[in-house]
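Late entry, evening session. Most of the bench is empty. Finally got around to the prediction I had been postponing all week. Sequence below, unchanged from the version circulated by S.P.
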Amino acid sequence: MRLLSVLSLSILVAISAAAEGPIERLSGALRFETISHQNPTDFDPEPFSELHRYLEAAFPKTHATLERERVADYSLLFTWRGSDPSLAPILLTSHFDVVPVIPGTEERWSQPPFGGVVADGYLWGRGALDDKVGVLATLEAVEALLTSGFAPERTVYLAFGHDEELGGDVGAAGITELLESRGVRLWFSLDEGMAIVSGIAGLEKPVAMIGVAEKGFLTLRLTATADGGHSSVPTPDGAIPRLARAVARLDETPLPTRMGSVANAMFDALGPHLPGIQGFVISQRWALGGVLESILSETPSMNAMIRTTTAITIVEGGVKANVLPTSATATVNFRVVPGDTVAGVVEAVREIIDDPEIEIEIEEGREASKVASDSGEAWEAIRAAVESTAPGVIVAPALVLGGTDSKHYGRIADDSYRFTPFRLGEDDLGRVHGTDERLAVEDYPNIIGFYESLIQGASGTTR
C-alpha cells in the first residue's frame, strides 16, 4: 500500500512540475531525500527509487527514446545511440545523492533543506548545486533536443551515480565496469567539479573554471606507543608528547609546490586579465616563480592548487587524567597534487617526522588523476558551449581539489573534464555541502542551454 501511495505521489509531483517548467521539475527532485550517509546501515533506498520514477514521468521523451539501465540498483545509465558508430562516444555525468544536513542546523536554513522552495530569486535545497542540478539540466537538454527533432551522430551516454558522496565505488565504478566490458572508449567525459566563479584574484570578469584534473587522496594513521603508567611519574618519551612532536613537524613543514601543467595553464589563461602587479608577476613567473609561489601559498585555496596539502584531522590518546596512555594516534589527510604520488608523500612524511618509533599506516590512498588536454576538439567543444551561454566569461583550466566520479570514468575516457556551468559568488562557496545551498533561478536556463549546446556541438547536428 505504501509503495502505491509513493508511486502515485512521485508521478503526481512530476506531472505537476512538467506542467510548469524546468525550475519546478528541479524543485521536485530536491524533495527526495537521496542522502549518502557515512554509515552504510543508514542507507534508505526508497527515495532513490522514488526519484527514478519521478524522472521517468517528468522526462517522457528521454525515457521513450534512450536506452535506460539500472546499475548497482540505484544508479542510472542512459544510452542515446548515434548514427555513426565509428565515432567515439561522449559521457555526461552527474549524481543523485546528496550529503546529509548536519543535525541541529536545520533551523539555520532560510528554507527547508528538502523543501525545494523557490523564493527570493533562488531555488533552495540540498542538491541545488551538488549535484541534482547537473542531473536535471542534462535531462532537460536531452528532452528539448528530442522535441526539436535532433538526433546525434555520435553516441551520447548519460550516467547518474547514487553514491558519489561516498566515493562512487559502487555506482560510478559499476557503470565504468559495464561500459568497459562492452569495449567502450570515450572521446571525453564531463562531470561536476568546477563552476563559473566571480571574484577570483580581483578579476572583474567571472571565470569558467574547467577542471582538467583532480587531486588524489591519502589518509595516514600515525601511532606512538609507550609503556604508560601513573601520571605522577611522567616519562620523557610519552606517547602523546612523541605524537605531538611528529604532528607539529608535519604541520610546520608543507610539502613542496608543484607548478605543473595545470597551474601554468590556468595562469596562462588568467594572466592577461589580471591587473597591476598580479598580472606582471604571473606574466613573469618563469623568472619570479619563487615570489609567485610565496604569494599563492598565503591563500588557502590557491595554496591547495599548487601543492599536496597536509591536514591533521583526528587526534586520539588517553583515557583518564591520571593515567599515562600506552598509545596515541593521529589521522592526517593529504590531497595529492598531480606530479606527486602516494608513495612519494608517505616517504616525505617519514623524513619530516624523523622518528622511526612512529608507526605510519596507510588507511586509504588514491593517486591524482591524469590531466586532460586544455586544447584540441574536446576542449574547444566545451569552451564553445560555455561562450554560447555565458558570453564574456574567461575560460580557464583548473585543478579540482576534491573528488568526483571522474576518478572512475577517467579510466575509459581519453580526456575527463569537471565543470557544471552554474555561477558562484564569493558568498556562495560555503553553501556547497553547507547551510542554505541554493541556485539562482535566472541561472538555470543558461545551464540547460550549455548542455544543449555541448551535445549539439560534440555529437553532430543531424535532423
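Two things to note before I forget:
The domain at 2-212+370-459 is CATH 3.40.630.10 (Aminopeptidase).
The first helix runs from residue 2 to 18.
Will write this up properly tomorrow.
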